Amino acid sequence: MAELTTLARPYAKAAFAYAQGQSQLADWANQLETASGVVAQPKIAQLLGDPAKTPAQLSSVLIEVLAVDTNGGFANFFKVLADNRRLALLPTIQAQFNQLKANLEASVDVEVVSAFDLSDDQTQSLVAVLKGKLEKDINVHTRTDSSLIGGVVIRAGDLVIDGSVRGRLNKLAEAMNS
């Protein structure tokens, strides 16, 4: 996983710098998200892994599927990726691009997994506390997972706060086995 991140980083930084210079961060984020979804499709992934296909063929397929301007920045970016056989890195590039964009905008995506649905009041109070702790705007995404038994698990980038009953039971079991 770290290897993919390392390979994708220069492309994500270059795409981000270009998009920022063109004042097109939102457009690039949307296009990278769409492209990531396309390359994740099994038939496209198989095509991208075909060594018999030339980089020009690979980039033209992606450009055609995504219906991007053949002379625009997106097309050039896809051509560079294809020339270096890095089109399969698009999901990782997209994730890193989004992280750079969030850092610029001083916002962070936070995933809150709870055992039960959170009310709007609970979500808003959680956002307020996280905003104070992280000193960034919070984009919260909630989902439920009944296997947690109770409590919540909060993920914000590298930060993970496990306040679930299942997590506490696992910690207790580890302590007893030590």
Structural overview:
By secondary structure, the chain is of the alpha+beta class. It has 2 domains: 101 residues, Orthogonal Bundle (Peroxidase, domain 1); 72 residues. It has 8 helices and 4 strands. It has a 4-stranded mixed beta sheet, with helices on both faces. Helix 7 links the parallel strand 1 and strand 2. Helix 1 runs antiparallel to helix 2 and helix 1 packs across helix 6. The longest helix is centred in the first third of the chain and has 20 residues. It is elongated and about 55 Å long. It starts with a helix and ends with a helix. The relative contact order is 0.12. The model has no long low-confidence stretch (mean pLDDT 87).
Cα-to-Cα separation, first versus last residue: 30 Å
What CATH architecture of the largest domain do you see? Orthogonal Bundle
Structural class: alpha+beta
Proportion of helical residues: 55-70%
CATH class of the largest domain: Mainly Alpha
Total domains: 2
Membrane topology: Peripheral membrane protein
Keywords: ATP synthesis, Cell membrane, CF(1), Hydrogen ion transport, Ion transport, Membrane, Transport
InterPro entries: ATP_synth_OSCP/delta_N_sf (IPR026015), ATPase_OSCP/d_CS (IPR020781), ATPase_OSCP/dsu (IPR000711)
Protein name: ATP synthase subunit delta
